[in-house]
Amino acid sequence: MKSVMEWFSHVLLIITIVYIFLFGLIWFYEPVRALASGFLLGGLISLYNVFHLAFRLKIAGLRAQSGARKLAGLHMTVRILMIVFGVLIVYRFSTRIDYRSFVLSLLFGYLMLVTVMSYYYLRGKGSTSSEEGGEIYGSDSESEISRNDL
């Protein structure tokens, strides 16, 4: 699990840097400044929420593995408040930040989460092997159902 989180964090960090750089450059072009501001604000909030979720999942997993009685929460309220904070900023500075691009870019981090993790597992890195300590299910003859069993 540790390598999955590390790989995911590295890839998402690279995507975040490219995203900030791209919309940071677009922001300097005056006619689309409000559009770029909306994409920057929404995308950064979305990516923050994904990074925060990954961090909280890691903490919750470590606590569950250690056998602690009090399990860690995922802080869903913090992520929702972050979106509310962004909405308030867009409302306050409606002439400088486009609300349509803000709303569209709120999905960016979650789409990246699904895309990156799907790519990871489709490439085969996500499969467990008996060498890593995982168990391969369905590989023994007892788990197979034959016609005679029915």
TrEMBL record:
Pfam families assigned: ATP-synt_I
Annotated TM spans: 7-29, 35-55, 76-93, 99-122
Disordered: annotated segments: 126-150
Keywords for this protein: Cell membrane, Membrane, Transmembrane, Transmembrane helix
Topology in membrane: Multi-pass membrane protein
InterPro entries cross-referenced by the UniProt entry: ATP_synth_I
Cellular localization per UniProt: Cell membrane
Cellular component terms (Gene Ontology): plasma membrane
Keyword Nucleotide-binding: no
Chief place where the protein resides: membrane
Protein name in UniProt: ATP synthase subunit I
Organism the protein comes from: Sporolactobacillus terrae
